[in-house]
From TrEMBL:
Belongs to the binding-protein-dependent transport system permease family. This is Binding-protein-dependent transport systems inner membrane component. It is a multi-pass membrane protein. It comes from the Bacteria. The lineage of its organism: Bacteria, Bacillati, Actinomycetota, Actinomycetes, Micrococcales. It holds the Pfam family BPD_transp_1.
Length: 293
């Protein structure tokens, strides 16, 4: 009986092992195929953009989008985009608005998250519900009231208008800080209070340094959003150029200089690409922190 069972058992094990190997190979193949498809989908538009930026105006009009440029060292479009588009002014204005907005968003967001997570007060659930409700309201529906408010405060056509708008409209950052703060033990606060620290000292010296991954996530997500924002600078700061509105100068009623716009777009993409490459590990850590307790 033993001699009869052993071969069948061995065959079953061999079949099971073969099936596991086939499934493993299939999973690996599917993984690499998905990565290849994602890389093609991501890099194809960028390659078309790069080809267009290196072409002259007649060459761009006479060739297809996937045709390589005749001269790979034709950088006149980049010079035109940077000078005629006043991209240096746009970079300076965008940097000022971006830095001040990010600092304000981080301070207001972490303070609000600390208060909502660490304190128990009447109406706490109502406040959380109002924050959630604010994320469901499209910003376009409140633009008339927002414009009247900014104009009434005398902030129209100033950088302060953009800074105020960007600082006060990021509910997602508050929720991200709350999720991460819930993973910080309350015992740290209690230990600091035993040592004589007040609530401000606990927030500034204990909680805030531990929020670095979440802060890095908010910086890159919020920074890219502010950097690429077109509508708010175009509406509230018409006299000064931002990096997102600089490219609009090459679009007129008689057509558009698409090869110059492509060159300017490449210039705009480079800072965000560098920032993402430098902060990507902090982004992933900040997005996953607090998800599992």
């Amino acid at each position: 009986m033993t001699a009869t069972i052993a071969p069948s058992t061995g065959r079953r094990r061999s079949a099971r092992t073969l099936g596991q190997r086939v499934r493993g190979v299939s999973a690996t193949t599917a993984k690499y195929l998905s990565l290849i498809v994602a890389a093609v989908v991501t890099l194809l538009p960028l390659s078309v953009l790069l080809f267009a930026s290196l072409k002259t105006a007649p060459e761009y009009a006479q060739t297809g989008p996937f045709d390589a440029p005749q001269n790979w060292f034709h950088f006149d479009n980049f010079v035109t985009a940077f000078t005629s588009g006043k991209m240096l002014e746009g970079f300076i204005n965008t940097t000022i608005v971006l830095v001040v907005s990010l600092v304000g968003t981080i301070l207001l967001g972490t303070m609000a998250a600390y208060a909502l997570d660490r304190f128990a007060f009447r109406g706490k659930k109502l406040v959380m519900g109002l924050f959630l409700l604010a994320t469901l309201i499209p910003s376009v529906t409140s633009q008339v009231a927002t414009f009247q408010l900014i104009n009434g405060l005398g902030l129209y056509d100033t950088k302060a208008a953009l800074i105020l708008l960007f600082m006060g409209t990021d509910i997602i950052a508050i929720y991200l800080f709350i999720q991460f703060m819930q993973s910080i033990p309350v015992s740290l606060d209690e230990a600091a209070m035993i040592d004589g620290a007040n609530r401000w000292t606990i927030y500034w010296r204990v909680v805030l340094p531990l929020l670095k991954p979440a802060i890095a996530t908010v910086v890159i997500i919020k920074g890219i959003a502010v950097y690429n924002e077109f509508y708010a600078p175009f509406l509230y700061l018409p006299s000064e150029g931002m990096i997102s509105t600089s490219l609009f100068r090459f679009k007129g009623p008689f057509g558009a200089q698409w090869e110059v716009i492509a060159a300017g777009t490449i210039v705009v993409i480079i800072p965000t690409l560098i920032a993402f490459l430098l902060l990507q590990r902090w982004i992933y850590k900040g997005l996953t922190a607090g998800a599992v307790k």
